[in-house]
Design goal:
Blueprint: E1 19-21, E2 24-33, E3 39-46, H1 55-60, E4 78-80, H2 88-97, E5 100-102, H3 107-115, H4 128-131, H5 135-144, H6 148-152, H7 158-175
Parallel strand pairs: 4-5
Antiparallel strand pairs: 1-2, 2-3
Length: about 180
């Protein structure tokens, strides 16, 4: 008799998107948002999953339909992210796709670059005015967690919780 298979895309406790984090045994919601705090794409992962590992999948899921004819828009005009995304692969991905970005440099990365002297390269560009708009993602997360079912994750199954989060995102879009 064959062993039972785990669900496709399952991670963590039996594929249910649960894992240890500072908040306990829970899930993380990774999302991108537009200027009006509306979620554009979202992914649910176990609690211990690092934010930077989900950067590319979240940006790849963005699909904004055009009002007229044409393919949906897949590339944001600019990205403002926190220090969790301040690493080489994230910056290289954004440069390769031609997306303007504002991501502050981590203190240890800055110290390592300065230690190298002229071989350390130039510091990454940082626009403080554009970085102030990063709070739209935080506000979108707060809106998304207004329903108690999303904030506390009552759903046992990962795919059901993803459906609950998606329904909350639809309500945000319908109210805007």
């Amino acid at each position: 008799m064959a062993a039972p298979r785990r669900p496709a895309g399952g991670r963590g406790a039996g594929g249910e998107g649960l894992g240890r984090s500072r908040g306990g045994f829970t899930s993380k919601i990774h999302l991108s948002a537009d200027g009006l705090c509306r979620p554009l794409s979202l992914i649910v992962t176990p609690g211990q999953r690092a934010d930077c590992t989900q950067f590319v999948p979240v940006l790849e899921k963005i699909r904004v339909p055009r009002l007229g004819l044409g393919r949906p828009r897949k590339k944001p005009g600019s990205v403002a992210a926190d220090k969790a995304y301040s690493n080489g692969p994230c910056r290289q991905y954004l440069r390769r796709r031609g997306i303007r970005h504002t991501i502050p440099e981590k203190a240890d990365s800055q110290a390592a670059r300065l230690r190298k002297g002229s071989r350390g390269g130039r510091p990454p560009g940082f626009n403080a005015e554009r970085y102030k708009k990063r709070n739209t993602v935080e506000r979108a997360i707060n809106k998304l967690k207004n329903p108690r079912a999303v904030a506390t994750r009552y759903d046992k199954r990962g795919y059901v919780f993803l459906g609950t989060v998606t329904a909350a995102a639809l309500v945000i879009w319908l109210r805007s």
